[in-house]
TrEMBL record, chains A, B:
Keyword flag Amino-acid biosynthesis: yes
Cofactor (UniProt): pyridoxal 5'-phosphate
Record family assignment: Belongs to the class-IV pyridoxal-phosphate-dependent aminotransferase family.
CDD domains named among the record's database cross-references: BCAT_beta_family
This protein's name: Branched-chain-amino-acid aminotransferase
Catalytic activity annotation: L-valine + 2-oxoglutarate = 3-methyl-2-oxobutanoate + L-glutamate; L-isoleucine + 2-oxoglutarate = (S)-3-methyl-2-oxopentanoate + L-glutamate; L-leucine + 2-oxoglutarate = 4-methyl-2-oxopentanoate + L-glutamate
Uppermost EC category: transferase
């Protein structure tokens, strides 16, 4: 579809410092496209960033039929702009759409629109080390109707937000609490979809964890409350006795793009890796045997976030003396190196804008 | 707080027929109140029904932090307007608020605002038998911020929608499918809160059921997939060998106002009732023994909705020859009688507007 572009009449001041709070500053333009039953997706357009107007009965406000994605654009040393595996985000958006009964998008087409938006906003991609331009595509149900049923109209939007470095003072291991009361997701539910309700469902548990000095919670499976699933915004990896173990996708775990990239790199590096069910009790046993060498999360926000301590029902696992482990560091350097165009991209992960 | 009232300059045409599709027609005014961290809830106002304007980064679009309620205003024969146990909806709204990390409301105060709104819109309460004015209070998170954390600002709104009779051609038993693939909610999750994400999570299962000729699905517990929880928009009751059995509140079942009213009436009528775990296998055994006398849902929309058939993994339970059972009929007549002010309200359930 041909895209309509309406440029902003005046441009905003861009942040001068690299201390940009996550998700609070937005660029001058946004992408919008509408959907109507019978007509399909229509009127793709890049327009000035502006509030949107919806009927109070719009279904998004009542029944939460919505999906989103998160990816980043990186500034290379020679002034170019790179996206990291954006096709994976488009695939996952459609996977989420199917779970939430939202009409699918044309993945290539929408990726093309995102590239055009980022191209127009390329001066917003920050230059400081560790910074990037966060890209948030999302689809909301807009039909004004209180019937509990899929919407007949939708709006796909893409907004952009420059973000500062995740680790402002250098990479630092975090403390995580194994959540034993609340549940994030369960088999047959929406845990594998990137949909709004999964995130606010976690707030109570996260607030409790923060009060106790933890950065986030590690979720267990909803059925037996034994098997490790994921951290709020990251998939989790453990290095145990030379092998890397990560929970197998269970239907209630989000399939992270960074997760799949870590798995591919480990394979390349001939580091043995197991995707399987792992209970927190099993993990604790390895810890007691001195075999738990590293733990780290993998996600778009932090790329790799080492876990220095895990607290589980009064048991404390201190991992690698709460220092950054060599594998976490190697993965971080490799992935960010590819993202910034500083390391050879043999897999075609980086996409030029 | 003193309420600000801005009347609409022109009024809409009210529906003349009783065939009003649910949730698509809205009255002339709505109630709005805002919340800001540090200030609390402020500026309660009744204003003309109109679209609302939000930043595309408003948290409701991304992380689903939102709650809602549903109740009805009924027209009495002498032209009065009654609400049915609205204090219970206010209590549940705050219960949902606590689960979703949304600031609580002053229940009495907000109920007072709702009464004022209904009073202004009293000509919208339809007169035909079985009709009512549906009241939808809801709270949405409005802070423009992509950080995954509770919002610092919210908007509470109340919109009103005249609705036609649930059973247009008289009460008719429905066919329900026992859902064995998808899961609505699980212990530790948000199932007991009235929050948006729970509803769209059900669309896939409901669409499958409808294709097979079922009106809705009966959800099983998320852990063992054995115990009966609720129907999409109703709690469920079974009459087994003279006794009434309904699933005990498990933490993942919504505590319906109609459910609690049914329980209180059954007690008054000296009909034995058990709130307990009941598996679908146990139910099927009673069915085979000829002891499953009635099944019915209880909820604000239908009040009482008899279930004529339950399909479970290839097993069919035909209940009371797919006719309306005497207990379902008695409960329906009693509750709607009280709602319409036609039967004596010994419990103080009805509230005059």
């Amino acid at each position: 579809m041909s895209i309509r572009i309406e440029k902003a009449e005046s441009l905003k001041q861009k942040p001068e410092s690299k201390k940009i709070p996550f998700g609070q500053v937005f660029t001058d333009h946004m992408f919008v496209m509408d959907y109507e039953e019978g007509q399909g997706w229509y009127d793709p357009r890049i327009v000035p960033y502006a509030p949107i107007t919806l009927d109070p009965a719009a279904m998004i406000f009542h029944y939460g039929q919505t999906v989103f994605e998160g990816l980043k654009a990186y500034r290379t040393k020679d002034g170019g702009t790179l996206l990291f595996r954006p096709d994976k985000n488009m695939q996952r958006l459609n996977k989420s759409n199917r779970r939430m009964s939202i009409p699918e998008i044309d993945e290539e087409e929408v990726l093309g629109y995102i590239k055009q938006l980022v191209e127009i906003e390329k001066d917003w991609v920050p230059e400081f080390e560790g910074t990037s331009l966060y890209i948030r595509p999302f689809i909301i149900s807009t039909e004004p109707n209180l019937a509990v049923a899929p919407s007949k109209t939708y709006k796909l939007m893409v907004i952009l937000s420059p973000v500062g470095p995740y680790f402002a003072g250098g990479m630092k291991p975090v403390r995580i609490k194994v959540e034993d009361e609340f549940t994030r997701a369960v088999k047959g539910g929406t845990g594998a979809a990137k949909t709004a309700g999964n995130y606010s469902a976690a707030y109570r548990a996260q607030a409790n964890a923060k009060q106790e000095g933890h950065a986030d919670v590690l979720w267990l499976d909803g059925v037996e409350k034994r098997y490790i699933e994921e951290v709020g915004s990251m998939n989790i990896f453990f290095k145990i006795d030379g092998k890397v173990v990560t929970p197998a996708l269970s239907g209630s775990i989000l399939e992270g793009v960074t997760r799949m990239s870590v798995l591919e790199l480990l394979k390349d590096w001939d580091i043995p890796v197991e995707e399987r069910k792992i209970s927190v009790a099993e993990l604790y046993q390895y810890y007691e045997e001195g075999k738990l060498e590293e733990a780290f999360g993998a996600g778009t926000a932090a790329v790799i976030s080492p876990v220095g301590r895990l607290d589980w029902l009064g048991n404390t696992m201190t991992i690698n003396d709460e220092e950054v482990g060599p594998l976490a560091k190697r993965l971080y350097d490799e992935i960010t190196g590819i993202q910034l165009g500083e390391r050879e991209d043999t897999k075609g992960w980086s996409v030029n804008v």
